[in-house]
Structures are given as structure tokens and as C-alpha cells.
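fyi for ur records
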Amino acid sequence: MLECKNISQRFQSNNALSEVSLTLNKGVYGLIGENGAGKSTLFKLLIGLMPLQKGSITIDGGPPEKNKLRMGYLPQNFDFFHKLTVYESLEYVGTLKGLSKNVLSEEIHDWLRRVNLLAEKEKKTGALSGGMKQRLGIAQAFLGDPQYVLLDEPTVGLDPKERVAFRNMVNEVGVDRVILISTHIIDDVQAACENILVLHKGKLLYEGATQDFIDSVRDRICSIRIPRRRLPEFSTILDIISIKLLGEELEIRFVDREYSIELPGQTAENCTLEDAYFLTTGMFYKKGDGGPL
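which gave:
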């Protein structure tokens, strides 16, 4: 079990994290929040790369620095020694993690297969594309069968096929360990994570089941189609979440804040994780603020 109690972290005048408490048991968790919400700071504290200023972090009852060999980590900007091959890079990481040669060779081939890099194992890491390098980063994080895996923006640079493969792999191996995924790609969280954490301006707004979070805004989202020329008019009366271009019309998804708006052609919408996130954080276009123009 990974547990944080009232952790706070401050950089000069900025509160990166403020009184954050959470408990993670086995399973796949998504961590979502805007840039500057504190996601990367939280990861660095959990992995023991940054001294904690306030609060406590325990992993199976001990501090993070005592559990480093049981943890896998993919930083937001992953890179490696450019002159090493893909195989040599994983061999180096596995050696640092204390894996024996026999186990290491088997694990390297297994993870290269899982991330679709087996054919590239003799290629220098400096010659890899961005997506290949990201998949190498994912493989090194899981090497050694860690019980806690922290992945910071793991699907950046992956094409749609590899993103789906990543989701499938995470769901396959996340049954008996804790996997925490930080990402801006809401679709990945909804597809891969049974539980989510929502950080906003350093504060934890939600921790729990993804579907419960979505259900919390049920019946709050509506849509309407309007001529494109009428967008300025509707921006003054609606809290707009998103706009989609449909020929000469716009489909506007908006928040029915008081459950009282009734417009011709208005329909209720099935809520998505993105809807729940924007509504919970208040990060949408408020009526009267000029709108998304």
C-alpha cells in the first residue's frame, strides 16, 4: 500500500502541493490535472527524488527511499545513453535493479516484445524515434517486476495503435501491483484506469472510482446545435465545455448549472470523464467572459 498523509511542497511563493492525502492499493490509477497542478512534483516525492517538506509518505509502512528497488519510474522527459543499443540500455537498468543475468535476459526479451521493440533491440537509442524511445522508457519502468510503477505522461509520442497496446498491457499487468499514470490524455485514463486522482492547483479534488466521478455530473451536461454566426450570442448565456464543427453548424456542449436552461433543440448528453474533469475543476468557458473566440 502507498499512502500519503497531508503532504505539502512549496517552491518559493508557489504551493506545488497543499495538504494532499491519498491511499493506493493494487490496481491502475490515473492522475489528471492541468500543467502546474503538481503531478510531476508528486511523482518525484513518491519515488524519493525530492525531499518532502511537510507530511508523510509510506510504501508498505516504510519511506520511499527504502523501497526504490520495488519501484519503477518513467519520468516526463525520458532519455538514455545514445550510444547504447536498446538491449544494452535495458541490461544496464536491470543490473542497477539487481537482476541476475539469466532472469535479466528473459525479462528484457519479454518487455521488448510487449512494447513492440524486439526487432529494434540492436538499434542505438540515439537513432530511435520519439515513440520508440517512449516505449523503451515504459519497458525499463516495468523491468524487474516492481510492485509500484509511476508513469509520467507515458503515451506522449505514441501513435494510436501503440496507445491502445499500452492500455491493454497496463490492464493486463496492473492486477497485482500499483500503477499510477499521469497524463493529459483523458481518453487514456478513461480506457485504462479504474480509479483516478484529480489534482488542481496543488490540491486533490477527487480520489476514487472513475465511473463514480463521471456519475457525479450525470444530467449536468447538455448540447445544442447552432449556426456558426451565433456563437458570440450563446457564449454570453452558456457555460461552454466544448465546441465541435459540423458543416455550417456548431455543436456546443455546455453545463446546465441550475438544471433550468431550456433552449430549442437542447438535448441531454451522456457524461464523459472529460466533462466531469472540466466541471469539477471549473476549467471551462464561463458565460459572459467572452467565450472561446
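The mean pLDDT is 89. thats all i got for now
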